[in-house]
Each structure stands twice: as structure tokens, then as C-alpha cells.
Design goal:
The protein has three helices and three strands, in the order αβαβαβ. By secondary structure, it is of the alpha/beta class. The longest helix has 17 residues. It is globular.
């Protein structure tokens, strides 16, 4: 059995993407971490109810992307994950997008 089949209990897993709203330090950040956390919680709930086999949380709306993740973005992602991690019922991962043009 492959590692992914063992992890997801299926040979063709569906990975749902949890795209976070713009974060502190992003040009379109609207100043409410509480709202970002609530939106992430609702999106996670919808993904899991929809039957995904795993979830990848990412800063999709953090453009422009940098080759090194700015500290405010990294810190915000850590806080968001810390606030919702107890809600995950499927395998998960967290990534920051760097150099979105690349």
C-alpha cells in the first residue's frame, strides 16, 4: 500500500484547498483576524461536509507573493491554524505560496 493510500484510505484522494482571506501585511487585508478565522472555520466545515479526504490550508489571497513569506503572514497563518486545528477530521497540511508567478 502506498503512503498516500494509507494516509487517506483511498487510492485517489480529493484534497480540498482552504484559501485564507488576505492576511496582515497583504495589500487587501481588511483588518479583522477574527473574521478571517471565522471564514476559515466555515470553509473547513463545508469542505469536510462535502467529503474531501484531506485539506490543504494556504494563503491564496496573499498576493503579491514573495520568495520569502513575510513574518506577519506566517504569524497570521500560525494563529489561524491554532484556532481551527481542533476542527480537522481529515489529514491536513499548511503551506505558504511563494513566488506565485513562478
Amino acid at each position: 500500500m502506498s503512503w498516500s493510500t494509507e494516509l487517506f484510505q483511498t487510492s485517489k484522494p480529493i484534497i480540498g484547498l482552504l484559501h485564507l482571506d488576505p492576511l496582515p501585511g497583504d495589500p487587501f487585508y481588511e483588518g479583522s483576524m477574527e473574521q478571517i478565522i471565522e471564514n476559515a472555520r466555515q470553509d473547513l466545515e463545508a469542505l469536510q461536509k462535502g467529503g474531501v479526504d484531506g485539506v490543504l490550508m494556504t494563503n491564496e489571497f496573499s498576493g503579491p507573493f514573495f520568495t520569502d513569506t513575510p513574518k506577519p503572514v506566517f504569524g497570521a497563518m500560525c494563529r489561524i491554524f491554532g484556532e481551527i486545528r481542533h476542527l480537522f477530521t481529515v489529514p491536513y497540511g499548511v503551506e505558504t505560496i511563494a513566488d506565485g508567478e513562478g
